[in-house]
Structures are given as structure tokens and as C-alpha cells.
Specification:
The protein is built from 9 helices and no strands. It is mainly alpha-helical. The longest helix is centred in the middle third of the chain and has 28 residues.
Amino acid sequence: MANNTDKHTEIEHWSRCLAQVGRTRDRVLYLRFYDHFFPRLQSWLLGVTRDSTLAEELAQETMLIVWRKAAQYDASKAAASTWLFRIARNLYIDQLRRRQVQSRGRGLLTEEHTWFAEHTADAARVRQAIRQLPQQQAQVIYKSYFEGKSHQEIANDMDMPLGSVKSSLRLAFQKLCTALRP
């Protein structure tokens, strides 16, 4: 029974620690929290991702979010470790979704997109055609195909509605296909 009590006490300790970091922005206390949880988090992420570089990046990003959002932590809703690992899990899921969107973007092209992909070997012509697009259309093309961002990420980056991003991409592709047609 003492073992369960010790575990419960440790959980409460780290939850109080994180709540205090949120209230006071105490860097020394945060570094203790970081030193305790970072190796555990990285190890868990390595088991999930099977990629040591990705696991380290996600662990670092998680700990940065914890520092930035510590004031939002509510110990009455979850233990600090639960909150921390949920953030990491969500970052990992977001990473998977980005990869799926990028894969789908490359694999599920419409007929126009397929024609565009097959007939644009000449990069200089493509760059010139993109320069001829209205600025917003050129930006969404760049963010989508060169930065690999999802439509929602582009909408957030450019502070525009999601439907406008999709319309801009469609119009940009129509113009590029016309400009690049032999």
C-alpha cells in the first residue's frame, strides 16, 4: 500500500509543480519539471515513432508548449503527466496527419493536377508561370506544394478562410495549366 501512496504523492508533487510554474513562471522549477519528464517523454515517443530524431523533436516541442501554456494547466482536470503526454500525443497525431496530407496531395491529383505534374519538367517555366499569378494564388501554391502545408495550415498562416484557400489553389492551377500548356 505504501507504494501506491508514494506514487500518488509523486503525481501530486509534479502537478503542484506545473501549476506553480503556470502561476509564477519560475524557470528553476520548470527546469526540474523538464529534467524529470523529458527523458520519460522522449523514451515514450521513441517507442511510438520508432524514429529517434522525430522523438526528440516532438519531446522538445512538447516541453516548449508546456512552458508556454503552463498557466492553462488545471490540476483538478488531469495530472501533470497526463496533460504533458496528451500534448505529446496530439503533436504526434498532427505530424502523422501532415504526412498523410502531403502523401495524398502527391497521390490523389485531379486530372488538371496530373497534367500539371506530368508536363512541368522545365522548372524555369514553372517559376515564371507562378510569378505571373496574383500574389495570393502564388503564395497558396508555394505553401501547399513547396512547404507541404495542409489547406488549414495555409488558412491559418495567411489569416484567410479555408474555402478561400481552396478556391485560390483551384484558380492558380487553372492558370498554371493554361500558361504551361504547349
